[in-house]
Amino acid sequence: MMSSMDFLLFTKGPLFQVAIAIFVLGILIRLVEIFALGRSRNFAEPRGGQVIPGLKTVYKRFNPDPGTFRRAPFDVVVGTVWHIGFIVALLLFIPHVEVIKATVGLAWPGLPNPVVDAVTAITLLGLIAALIHRLTHPVKRFLSTPEDYVIWAVTFLPVLTGYIAYHRLVNPYPLALGVHILTAEIFLIVLPFTKLTHIFTAVVARWFNGANFGRKGVQS
Amino acid sequence: MSERVVVDPITRIEGHLRIEAEMDGQNIAQAYSSGTMVRGLEIILRGRDPRDAWAFAQRICGVCTLVHGIASVRAVEDALQIELPRNAQLIRNLMIGAQTIHDHVMHFYHLHALDWVDVVSALSADPAATSQLAQSISSWPKSSPGYFADMQKRIRTFVESGQLGIFANGYWGHPAYKLPPEANLMAVAHYLEALAWQREVARLHAIFGGKNPHPNFVVGGVPSPIDLNSDSAINAKRLAQVQDLIRTMQTFVDQVYVPDTLAIASFYTDWAERGEGLGNFLSYGDMSIDGSTDLDSYLFPRGVILNRDLSTLHDVDLHADGEIQEYIAHSWYAYEGGPQVGLHPYKGETRLAYDERKGPAVPFKHVNVEDGYSWLKSPRWKNESMEVGPLARMLVLYASPNAPAHAQAKELVDSTLSTLGLPVQGLFSTLGRTAARTLESKIVADAMQTWFDALVANIKSGDTRTFNETLWEPSSWPKKAQGAGYMEAPRGGLGHWIVIENGKIANYQAVVPSTWNAGPRDPQGIPGAYEAALQDNHQLHDPKQPIEILRTIHSFDPCIACAVHLQDPETGEQIQVKVR
Amino acid sequence: MSGLDNIPIQVEPAPALARDFGNALPILGEIRHAVARLRHDGEPSCIDLGAMPFGPGDEARLMTLLGRGEVSATVTALGPTHVWETGYPGVWVVEYQNTEAQRVGLQIEIDEVPKILRTQPADLDDTLAALEARLREAAGRHPDGASDSQ
Amino acid sequence: MSGFSLERGLQALREEMDAPVASFFSSCVHCGLCAQACPFFVETGDPKYTPIHKLEPMRLLWEREFTLWGRLKHLVGLGRKVTDDMLAQWEPLLYDSCSMCGRCSLVCPVGNDIAYMIRKAREGMVASGHAPEGLIAASVRAVNTGSPMGLQWKTLEVQIKHVETSSGLEVPIDRQGADYLVLLSSMEIINFPEYLEAITRIFDHAGVSWTLSRQCFEATNAGIQIGSKDIAATLVQRVVDAAEALGVKNVISPECGHAYTAIRWEGPNAIGRSYPFRVFHIIEVLDQLRAEGRLRTEGKEMDRLSMHDPCNLARKSGVIDQQRHLMDLVADNFVDLKEHGKFQWCCGAGGGVSSNERAEALKMAAFKRKKAQIEEVEPERMVTMCATCRTQLEEGLEEFNMDIPVVGLTEMIADHLVEKERA
Amino acid sequence: MAVPIRPQPRTLGDSLRQNGVSRRGFLKFCAATASMMALPPSMAPAIAAALEQARRPSVIWLSFQECTGCTESLTRSFSPTVENLILDIISLDYHHTLQAAAGDAAEHAREQAMHENAGNYLVVVDGSLPGPGSNPGFSTIAGVSNLQMLQETVAGAAAVVAVGTCAAFGGLPKAAPNPSGAVAVSDIIKDKPVINVSGCPPVPMVITGVLAQYLTFGTLPELDAYNRPMAFFGQSIHDRCYRRPFYDKGLFAETFDDEGARKGWCLYRLGCKGPMTYNACATMKWNGGTSWPVESGHPCLGCSEPDFWDAGGFYNAMSVPVGDSGNVLLAAGAGGLALGVGASLLGRHKRAAAKAGHETVTADELEQKL
C-alpha cells in the first residue's frame, strides 16, 4: 500500500513532471494549431488599426459593458469574484510562488496567508454559487455539457483541497497536500483538452475580436 | 602453532570494520583491516544539489557528527569560492573544537577505557584509598570517600543483579589489566561522569546548529543569525551559555581527562613500545586561531612527516592530481582503469563490485585477502601510506616552530614524556596515540576561549554577519566547478572533493580519516596504518581474549566496525577463534 | 558559574518582558479553568510544560506573568526538585532536576499542596514500623522494661 | 447539376476555418452571456437562441478536424459527427433567429466574434442546401435580374424622371469621371423614393460631381445575407465593373446597412482584390460635406427625435459619430436611445431575416427589444439611415400601435438645405 | 527458561528502593517518566503502579547500515539518562558501540541474552540493511549478513523497535538510487510488532520514552500510520512551531542572515519541511531543551519522514516539486511545438484541399432549390 508520504512524493515528483509536460505540450499544440490556421489576406481598405484595438479589447473584456452588467449582474459579480479569487490564490500564495519560482524561475511577492485564506473561502463560495447558477439558469443549463460539470469540479477541487490542506482539516498532512497537488495536476492535465484552455486562448480570441472590429474603426 | 584470529565485531567504535592478521606464534605477522559495511553514499550524492550535500555527508558518521558536514560545506565553498563571514568562521571553529573535545573524552572513557580499566576489579577497591588517589592527581571536586563508596555500591548492585548488560563478557581479570582496584574504581566513576558531562557540552552544537547529533550547517555561513536584541538568534544569553560550556569543557579536560590519562598511562608504559606502524603522518591543518583563512594562523598546521623525520615537513596540495590518490587493489570496488590504478578524488569512481572482487559468500569465516577484502579504499599521499589523527597532528605541530600553538604543544609533550619517563620515540606507539589525543584536547580547549573572545569582540565591533548569500542561488554558479573541503576531524585529516556541473553534483568523494588509517593494502602491498600498527610488536597473551588488538585498534579511535583475522602463513589453515 | 554579567557585551536596553511567541497566555487560561475546577469540585490538575511548543522567551514570560508567592521548597530525592507557589495561591511550579541538576521536567500543579510535598501513605507505614521498632528497642534496654520483668 | 450536399457544405465550412475561429471555439466557456446580448433570446427567452449555440455544427467540425485532440477523440469513436439532419435542424437558428447584428461579439467575455462565425457558418449552410427559401429566391433574383426584388432599370428611370421634375435638377447618369458613383437599393427605390431626390438636391447644393450607372444601380447584396461568397462576388463584381467603367473616384452606398458592409468590407475579399476607388456610406459623405462647410442648412426640427443606428453601419463599420453630427445640424431636441452606437440593439430585420418569410414572427419578436428601447426615451419620431431598418421600424411600430413616424436622415438633411435661390 | 545461576531480575521498584530512593523520589521519577512518554501528568499514579512491578527487560541493540548517530542521540537523553537507562531500567545486553565485549564474546553475549529471555526481549535496530534481493556482502557482522542476523535475533523477540529513519524507513542508504539495496526493518519483519522511532537521529527522549513505555506497561504505544508512537509523532513540527504565527502573517526569512532570520520569522521559503514532518522537536527540543533546528535558524529537514532525502531539496520550499522541471518544460515545449506544427499542417492541408475543390455556388444551382 502506498503511504501518504510516498503519495506526496509521487505527486510532487513524477506526476508533477507528467502534468506539466502534458500541460505544456497540450497548450502549445492548441496555440500552434490556432495560429497556424492564420487569417486570409484582407483587401478591404482599413478604417483603423488592429494591434492597439486588439490589445485594448484584451483588457476591456475584463470589465463587462453596463448593459450586460444590468441584465446579468450575478454572472458578472460571481464570475469576476471567483476568477480574481482563483488567480490571487494561485499566484499570490507564498507556497505557490515558490512552486512557480522553482519551475520557471520567476518570482514575485505574495500576500499574507490570512488574506489568501479569506480570498480562497470567497472563491469557494463563488464557485458553488456559479455551479448552482449553472444548474438553475435556463441558458446555462441548456448550454452545459457533461464537460462543463467536470470542468467545474476540476476547478473547484484544487481550491477546496488547498483550503483543506492549509487548515489541516485532513490528516496526515502529506496526504492532504498530496491530494491538493494531485487535483492541481489534474487541472493542469485536463486544461489543454477542455474549455479550460480559455485561460490562454481567451487572450488570443479577444485580440482577434478587437483586431476585427478595430480594423473597421470600432473599439470592441 | 600459527593460526588466524578473527575478531568480529570489534565493538566500542563507530561502524563495521574487520581486520585479518596472520600469526607467527604469539606475534601478529600480517594484519588485514576490512570495512564490512557500505552504503554507497558517494553514489547517492551524485546529481543532487551541492547545498544539500552536507546533510548526506554528515550521516557518514554520527559520532564525529559534525566533521563531514563541515568538510562538505567547505568543499562546496572551495569550489564556488564563497568567502565566509568571520563570525561564521569562528562559530564553526567553536563547533569543531567542541566536537573534538567531546569526541576525545567520549572515546577515552566510553570506547577506549575498558581496554585498560577492569570494571570488576573496581568492586574490591577501598573507597577511602580511591579518594586519596583521586585527590592526589586532581582538584576535581567529586572525590570524597563517600562518593566513591556510593559509586562502588551502585556497581555492586548492578553486577549482583546478574544482568551485566553492556559489561557482559568483557575480558575482566585478563592479566593485561594492570591498574590497581582504586584506579579502576576512579575510572569507572569517571566513565559515568563523562556520560553526564558529554550530554552537557553537546549543547554547544544545539545552540549554533539546532541539535546534536547531526547539527545543521549551511553553505556560505552558519544557520544561526546573530542579533543581540532578538530572542530567536544568537544573543547575549546564548553567548553566556556558550561561555559556560567552554568553561565546563576546560574544567573537565584539565581536572579529569588529562590527570586520568597520565595516571592510567603510567601503568602501561610498555605500550609506548608497540603499535607504531607506518612512521608517516599527515595533517591537512585546521582551525585558524583568529577566524581568518591564512594557513599560518592554523591551530593545527598542515604538513607531512615521513619516516619519523620531524626535521622535515612536506607540504600537501589537495588539488594536485599526483598527491592524494585512492587505490582499490584490495577493495570491493572496480575502477574503469582496472584495480591497480590510483585516482585523485576529483576523478574518483565508486562502483560497488563485491562479487567481482571476490568477496566471500555470506556467511563467511574469512575474507579473501588476495583480492578485495574491504569496503574501504586505500588512500595514499605521493604513493606513501599515511597515518592521520591526533598523533599526526601533534607531531606536525611539534615540528612546526612557527605555529601559534607550537610552544604549548612542545611543553605539553615534553612534560608528559618526562612524567611518564619515556623517550621521544615513545610517541610513536599505541600509548603515544592515546596521549596525543588527550594533549590536543587541552590545546583545543584553551583555543576555544580565544575563538569565543574573538567572536564577542567581532560582534561588539558591530559585525553580526553570519551568512554570505551572494552565491546561494545555483543560477549564480559557474557551469563547472570543483573544490576540496578539508578539516582535522577528531580521528584525523578529512577531505571531501566535489565536482559541480550545472548546479548539480557530478562527482563526490570523501577520503575519511579511517580510510587513511583502516584502509587495506595498496597495489604495492603496503599496508594501512591499522595493519602496520598491529604488525608492530604485538604478542597475544591469549588469542581467545585479544585485548592487545583492541588496545591498538582503539588507539586510532576507529570510525567503522572491525574484525581481525589471523592466518597461518605456512599452512594457510584458518582457525576461527573465539575472541573473549 | 557565569551568568549574563560575565559576558562582556553591551546589551541594548531590552523590553521589560521577554519576546512573546504567543504561547504563554493560552496557558494562563488553562490555569484559570484548573483553579475553578479545584475550587468547585476539589479536583487538582497538573500541566506538563514539557509538552508546550514554547518559543524562545515564552517560558520566561509565563513565569513573569505567574510571579513568585510566599512558599518555596526543595525536595532532595533523585536530585533536587524545586517547588514554589506562584503569585496566585494554589498555583504551583514544580521543577524536577536530576542528580546533575539538569532539568528533567517542569510542571504547573494546581492544588492546595503539591503532591511531591505530601508524605506518602506507604512512608507513613514505614514510619510507624520504624517508630515502633525504635520504641521496642528503647523499652528492651530499659531496666523496668516489660521484657525484663518476666 | 445542383450539387448541394452535406459534404459540399462541410467543405465550405472547412474553407472558412481560420485562426480567429479556432481561438473563439477554444475559448467559449458556456457562460451564456451572449444570450443576454441577442434580441432573439432576450425577447423569446428560449435558450436555443443563445448565439454561440447557433454555431454548434461548425464547432463540432472544427473540433473534430482541426484539433489534434478532436482527431484523437474521433479515432477512438468519441465525439459527434455533423450530419445533414443536424444542419437542417440548425437552419432556422442560423437564419431566422440571427440578424448578424454582432452585438454578441461585443459582450462576449472571452472575446468571441460570434457574428463573424455566423457569416462563415452560412457558407456551409448554402453549400449543403440548407438556406431559407426567401433568401435563395432573393439571391437568384439578384443575380438574374440585378436586383433582389427584381427591379429593372426602367422602373428606376421612371423614378429619376419624377425626381428631376420635382426638384428641377438633373440626375446625372453614366457621367464619365464623376467623383461619386451613387448606388441605390431596390427597397429605397420602391419604398422611399424621396431618398433619390434628397441626394440629388444635396449634391447639387454642395456642388458634388456624381452619377448613377445604368450598368449597375443596385447596392444590396443577397449573397452576403444568404452567406455565399460566390454569389456575393458576382454581385460586387457588377458594382466594381460599373465604377471602373465610369472611372469614378468613389462609390456611395445608400441608406442600406448590409449593402455598405457588402461593398465596403466584404467586396474586395469576395473578388480577391482591392478597388481602384473608395467606398462610402451616404452618411459618411454627408458628414464630410458638413465638415467641409458645404452643407448650409436652416431651421431645425423641434420635436423630440431619437435615432436607430443600423448595426451594419455603426457596430460593424464604425460610422457612429457622423450621423450625430448631422442630427445636430438639423435637430434641436435629439435624444439618443440608452444603448446606442456600437451597443445599439438590432431592429430584428437584418442579416436576411427580412427576406425570410418564415422568420416573420421571430422578426417581430426581436423587434420588441427595439420597441422597449424606444419606449424608454419616448421620442416623437425616429430617424434612421437604413432602408431595412426603416421598414422594420415602421412595420413594428405599426404592429404595436405606436404612432411614431420614421424618417431617413438624408431626407431630413435635404429638407433643411438653404434654398439656392435665397442664398 | 531462565538460566538457574542467574538471580531472578528484580522489579524496578525494588531496584530503586535498594538504591535508597524514597517514595517522593519514585513519585518524581514517575512524573518525569510521564512527561517523557508524552503522557498527561495525571497518568503518573498509573505509571507508579506499573513500575512497581516492572522488571529490567533485556534489550538487544543491532546496528546495521548506520552512522551511530542514533546511539549518540540516546547518550544525549536527559530523562532518563543513558546511564540510568542501562544501569537501572533495561539490561542492554548487546550494543556494539557501548559494550565491553568484542568479537565472538560480543556475539556470545547476544546469543546468551536471546536464549535466557526467549520471547521477552526487545530488539532495537538502528540502520537499514541490504534487502533479500541485494548482495549480502554489502553489510556483514562477524561474517553474517545483516538480514540473517536480524531474522535470527528477532525470532525470539517480543517486539522490535526500529530506531532512526534508516531502520524505520530505509533512510539514507535507501536514498536514490539506493546503491546497496537497503530496506527498512519492517520490510523484513512481518510477524512481530515493529515500532518505528524515526528521526535522523530521533529525539533522544523519544527513544527512551518508547523504551519506558514498553518497560512500564509492557505494551506498545498507540501508533500512527507509519507505526510511530502517536504520543511523539502525532503532530507536525509546523503545528507546534513557535514561528507558526509568522507563517500565518506571511513573514518569512529569505536568507539565513536577513531581518526575518534574526527576528525568528518563518523558514518556509528557506525550505522548512515542518508542515509535513511529524516529530516532537518543537516541544521536547534537543539537548536538554537547549534548542532545536528551527530555533537555531535552520529549516526542518523533515528527517522523521520516509524518503525525506528525496523529498525535493532541503532549501526548496516544501511546495516545490521534485525533479528537473526545467528540462521537462523544454522537452514538452519542443514536443508541443513539433506536434502542434504537425497537427496544424493537417488542418491547413484539409482547408487547402477544401479550397482547391471549391465548387462555386451559382444562382442556377440555387434556383433548383426553389
UniProtKB/TrEMBL annotation, chain A:
Signal peptide range: none
Gene3D superfamilies documented for this protein: Transmembrane di-heme cytochromes, Chain C
Residue runs in coiled coils: none
Alphabetized InterPro entries for the sequence: NarG-like_sf (IPR036197)
Keywords: Membrane, Transmembrane, Transmembrane helix
Transmembrane region(s): 15-37, 76-95, 115-137, 149-166, 186-208
Highest taxon of the lineage: Bacteria
Name of the protein in its database record: Nitrate reductase
From TrEMBL, chain B:
Record: residues binding Ni(2+): 61, 64, 559
Enzyme's top EC category: oxidoreductase
PANTHER family the record matches: HYDROGENASE-2 LARGE CHAIN (PTHR42958), UPTAKE HYDROGENASE LARGE SUBUNIT (PTHR42958:SF2)
Record key words, sorted: Iron, Magnesium, Metal-binding, Nickel, Oxidoreductase
Subcellular location per the Swiss-Prot or TrEMBL entry: Cell membrane
Any one cellular-component term (Gene Ontology): plasma membrane
InterPro entries to which the protein is assigned, alphabetical: Ni-dep_hyd_lsu (IPR001501), Ni-dep_hyd_lsu_Ni_BS (IPR018194), NiFe-Hase_large (IPR029014), NiFe/NiFeSe_hydrgnase_LSU (IPR050867)
Name this protein carries in UniProt: Uptake hydrogenase large subunit
GO molecular function, one term: nickel cation binding
Membrane-protein topology: Peripheral membrane protein
Binding site for Mg(2+): 42, 565
Cofactor requirement: Ni(2+); Fe cation
Similarity-based family: Belongs to the [NiFe]/[NiFeSe] hydrogenase large subunit family.
EC code: 1.12.99.6
Reactions the enzyme catalyzes: H2 + A = AH2
Residues engaged in binding Fe cation: 64, 562
Domain of life: Bacteria
Pfam families (alphabetical): NiFeSe_Hases
Oligomer and partners: Heterodimer of a large and a small subunit.
Function field: This enzyme recycles the H(2) produced by nitrogenase to increase the production of ATP and to protect nitrogenase against inhibition or damage by O(2) under carbon- or phosphate-limited conditions.
Automatic annotation (TrEMBL), chain C:
Domain called HupH hydrogenase expression protein C-terminal: residue spans: 23-136
Transmembrane segments: none
Listed Pfam families: HupH_C
Family, similarity comment: Belongs to the HupH/HyaF family.
InterPro entries: HupH_C_sf, HupH_Hydgase_express_prot_C
Source organism: Thiohalocapsa marina
Protein name: Hydrogenase expression/formation protein
Top-rank taxon, per record: Bacteria
UniProtKB/TrEMBL annotation, chain E:
Listed GO biological process terms: anaerobic respiration
Domain of life of the source: Bacteria
Catalysis performed (reactions): H2 + A = AH2
Residue intervals of the NADH:ubiquinone oxidoreductase-like 20kDa subunit domain: 67-213
Entry EC no(s): 1.12.99.6
Top-level class of the enzyme under EC nomenclature: oxidoreductase
UniProt: [4Fe-4S] cluster 2 binding residues: 238, 241, 266, 272
GO molecular function: 3 iron, 4 sulfur cluster binding; 4 iron, 4 sulfur cluster binding; electron transfer activity; ferredoxin hydrogenase activity; hydrogenase (acceptor) activity; metal ion binding
Assembly with partners or alone: Heterodimer of a large and a small subunit.
Protein name as it appears in the record: hydrogenase (acceptor)
